[in-house]
Amino acid sequence: MTDGPNETIEDASMSAHQQQMSAENFDLKSFFPYLVRVYYQSVSGSVGDVYSSLYDLGVSEWRVMAVLAPPQSMSALDIIERSSMNKVNVSRAVARLRKRGFLKQDIDGDDRRRSVLRLTEEGRKVFYDLIPRVKEVERQLLAGLSEEEVRTLISLMARVRENASSLEL
Questions:
Q1: What residue stretches are annotated with the HTH marR-type domain (predicted)?
Q2: pTM for the full model?
């Protein structure tokens, strides 16, 4: 029978050995977080080619426009919450969109201390011109998948996102 300290050393030794074996068997090409990044770049790049080539918009500008598109106004903080972008990216996108005349900033009618953003008429025209084009890219990206498979894919992605949100590291 081994005493406590020896068991701890053996356990640590086994753990180090297991870690080494795990590292030796690691394959980046099958590592889920890596695959997500590859899929993201491919999918986002396909859609981004549309709004970039036609209107010289970046992904952050596109997202701000998409959040504001149903004729509504909201603060930059609201855009951050609804777009999954950080404050710096939203701020830069808002500045570029304002400079190009696609976005305007007004004082909130209900709270004069707060400013709200909305698409200009020109911004709405650009956005509505892009919608059928990006929807066509989406259709092509999902080609060959049934409606049920698309629902399953979206559901699985949501579950993974929930798992990521609840990680305790």
A1: 28-162
A2: 0.76
Retrieve residue 53's tokens: 């080539």
Question: What tens digit of pLDDT does each residue of 146-165 get?
Answer: 999 999 999 999 999 999 99
8 A C-beta contact, residue 105 and residue 116:
yes
pLDDT tens digits for range 64-123? 999 998 777 888 888 888 888 999 999 999 999 999 999 998 876 676 677 889 999 999
Please give the tally of structural domains in the chain. 1
What are the structure tokens assigned to 139, written together? 């259709």
Q: Using the 8-state DSSP alphabet, how is residue 57 labeled?
A: -
Structural domain range at position 56: 28-165
Between CA 22 and CA 26, with CA 25 as vertex, the angle to 5 degrees is 85
**Is 108:115 a contact under the CB 8 Å cutoff?**
yes
76-83 vs 87-99: helix crossing angle, rounded to 10: 120
